[in-house]
Amino acid sequence: MVKERFKMGARVRGGMSQKFFFTIFLLSFLITDAYCYPVKVRDDWGREIEFFKRPERIVSLAPSHTEILLALGVERFLIGVTDYCPCRAGWGIQEKKGIGGFANPDIEKILPLNPDLVLALGSIQRPVVEALERRGKKVFWVCPRRVKDIINTIERIGRITGKPHDANRLIQRIEEKIKEIQQRLNGISDSERPTLFRVMGLNPIGTVGEESFQTDIFHLAGGKNLFCDIKKDYFEVEGKTLLECDPSVIVVCGEDEERLKSEIKTHSIFKNLNAVRRDRILVISCDLICRPGPRVSDTIEKIAGYLHPEKFLPLPQRIISLAPSITEQLCLLGLQDHLIGVTTYCDRPPEMKTKEKVGSVVEVNIEKIFRLKPDLVLASSLTNPKAIEKLKGLGIRVINFPTPKSYDQLCEQFLELGRMTGREKLAEKIVREAKERAENIRKSVEGLPKPKVFIQLGAKPLFTATEKYFVNDFIKYAGGINISQDQSIGLYSREEVLKQNPDVIIIVTMGIVGEEEKAVWQRYRTLKASQNNRIHIVDSNRICSPTPVSFVETLEEILSLLHPGKKN
């Protein structure tokens, strides 16, 4: 009997014990989610605002604030949003009352909602803040200048809404991701940080300065805002100033990448920038770059991956080259063993003849490329654009290298190739030595008479090189004058050649029979080049498909043709 009572008592005590611990657990959960009010929080205007209870009727005047509220799980208290606030399935934002745009929220739409908290952002909304406060509304205003300010904003909104623990967890995730990015970028020197120009407007040209949080984002991403020394948030820039500064990368926000790039490339100022000529235009979603919110670490990661792909993408092991010049550049970087496919025109160096052929420089065999399973395909301006899009559609990484317009741009492309293949230091060394040799040649002809030169790249129709084609630099560096340098396009006529009467004619054997063309020019006995037997044939491979090194080697040959007897 005693034993039975003991057992029963134990069961009762056990049951009570379980209920007790469950109650404690439930209370601890509720206490964790709860928050003690009143709460005093200082905004970026320096005002200390007191909240006596959790705000339950919140109006957000900025997409970034809306994203913070969503991330903290308090969307049920959100009653008004802007036209630009995120609308994602399951968030219920579509049902919230619209109160206008970010730059011009409608006060008359806000007031009837009777909010107990309005979240505002940036100097552009200061007048709205003042107007709402005159009407008795509580407004919390922030203006983040650094990434740490964005994190501080999340922390303060977390306290205001009774979600400090959720805010701290969110902050921890953001900080951990930023820390990981910084570890990947460890060791980057100031000279390795590309300069970025943030396009905030085209007509007039607008950008951001030191007081914009985007400047800090660029720095954390391994770059440098071109105008980081200007102590302004937004300001306008003269086209002449932008051209003089010549940034490394153009950053523009939007969703339609093709349209935005086209606008930049056809702009009267931007089209003259080296970054645009090299297609170094980063198009990034406005949702990321323009919003100082919980996705700031994603923004930093995206920009860092663009600026320093070698530190974020796995180095390519299976490469296909769709241009002879690219093939030679890869071999110059010691990557011949990583080449698994080339074009039928890629026959230099000799070992390329045994590589798998995937097509010509224009048309490629998409199925064969897909079967080879490349992790990188390098295309050129001659590659069929439709083929490039199909390859991308198959999930293949394709990088397109446009035809360089100058020797400097050729070297920049080579450096880019080095960066994406993990051979950056070797590429820098090769370029540095090649440029030094080219500069020595250029200096050696200073003060010498400049012969007039016609360089023929095609016969039917007659085609030549303008100043917007790197071939022009062969003549310029070798101390000559390209008679067609001022032409808008390369099409030329024999009549115009006779009129210009060049001292030297250089025929490039590219799809033409060089000896036949030489014979044609020799018939024109009034030509100085014909009279003085200065009509020369040069191998097209040396002229049209150079590397930074082979360019200089060919330049030495051109020097001997323009200035016979001159030794560099």
Walkthrough of the structure:
There is one protein chain. This protein has 4 domains: 39-162, 3-Layer(aba) Sandwich (Rossmann fold), CATH 3.40.50; 190-311, Nitrogenase molybdenum iron protein domain (Rossmann fold), CATH 3.40.50; 319-402, 3-Layer(aba) Sandwich (Rossmann fold), CATH 3.40.50.1980; 448-562, Nitrogenase molybdenum iron protein domain (Rossmann fold). It is built from 23 helices and 23 strands. The strands form 6 sheets. The chain has a 5-stranded parallel sheet, with helices on both faces. Strands 19, 20, 21, 22 and 23 form a 5-stranded mixed sheet that branches. Helix 2 (63-72) links the parallel strand 3 (58-60) and strand 4 (78-81). Helix 5 (147-160) packs antiparallel against helix 6 and helix 16 (407-420) packs antiparallel against helix 17 (424-444).
Q: Quick gist of this model?
A:
The protein is of the alpha/beta class. 43% of the residues lie in helices and 15% in strands. Helix 15 links the parallel strand 17 and strand 18.
Overall SS class: alpha/beta
Q: CATH homologous superfamily of the largest domain, by name?
A: Nitrogenase molybdenum iron protein domain
How many domain units? Answer: 4
Q: Helical residue percent?
A: 40-55%
So what's the CATH class of the largest domain? Alpha Beta
| Spatial order of strands in the largest sheet | 5-4-3-6-7
Q: Report the C-alpha radius of gyration, rounded.
A: 33 Å
Strand segment tally: 23
Question: What's the CATH topology label of the largest domain?
Answer: Rossmann fold
User: Main beta sheet, described?
Assistant: 5 strands, parallel
Rounded average pLDDT: 90
